[in-house]
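pipeline/complex-builder :: batch 7 item 3
reading input block
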Amino acid sequence: MTFHEFIKGDEGWVIQRRDSLFVHQYLEVDQVHLSSPTRPELFQWTVCHRKAGVVVAAQTPEGGFVLVRQERVPVRATLWEFPAGQIDQSGVHEWQTIVDTGLRELEEEAGYAAGPLAEVVSMHHFLSSPGFTDEHCYQLWVKGAVPAAGGMHLDPNEAIIEVRVFSWNELQQMVLSGEIRDANSLCCIARLGAILSAPRGG
Amino acid sequence: MTFHEFIKGDEGWVIQRRDSLFVHQYLEVDQVHLSSPTRPELFQWTVCHRKAGVVVAAQTPEGGFVLVRQERVPVRATLWEFPAGQIDQSGVHEWQTIVDTGLRELEEEAGYAAGPLAEVVSMHHFLSSPGFTDEHCYQLWVKGAVPAAGGMHLDPNEAIIEVRVFSWNELQQMVLSGEIRDANSLCCIARLGAILSAPRGG
């Protein structure tokens, strides 16, 4: 299992040795011996590998955003979040794999699908904690999301207890109050904020 | 080492057993047997514990934001980010501990300090990947940051190669282009965006 081939443009980084410290279904930990562009002497770092994810900012034709309220075990809290999930395949991810994963999660978790006039726009990716893990999450903006014919299909491991459409102003209030507090959603809101406030080209 | 006492308001969550799978200086992995508010039957989850962090959006009196450019080993990339670091103490964190950690990192990594008229404002915290880890990062907005008398004091483990002040519009361009792509910075920009666009009280 190699989660780390997503890295491109790593000129000047040389991995000399990689010792596996822990292997598990959901994460792997390596001790890496390497040199970097500004550190030619060999040094060590502990790296936690995780599968890549996809998070979806799905916007209805009326302009609202689809969020799910779900239980999150590590923090023992129930959070409002954009739908998201992991990419099963490791390695380099093609655009179509990212879109397929994002739309699958949108339908499974929220019961929404890309409508006939929908547009799926890349908002790049973000790194959840790049001092510690290579986990990265691709960010999609689905413009024109509509209720899916078949509704939700929840994974038995997930506890999603509510789905709701929020306006941009409501999202901003939830960011201000701290109610939205997962990186997936906040990073999408940062990208959307930059997109929505950018001057429109002619 | 218990990183998880930060959790408050966890009514309905009952941890029955916690088996340690991996213990390391920078992370611990547990297999937790628990029930949740909507899942009364015992189930299991793998939880990665990490120390809490503090990230600082430091704004100069002229309105620019202080960013550092640093090498990030797990993704083998050099990124522009807001200064950030971990809180050494585990457990529940008092406001003063969070502020002290944030200002320490601002000075060590960027060579900036809170000026005589500075104001330190809480922007809550975010969860870097709450399906997998309890890692959380407190977000501070330091208004009125000035160059520190003593300059930077870099940790030998860190490779920070540049410090620069960016305008809000420059940050928005770097969010749009994907150049800013760590959760620390994007989550701060999401909160700042909501704060700066909120209607001002009279």
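note: The two ends of chain B are 47 Å apart (CA to CA).
queue -> next item
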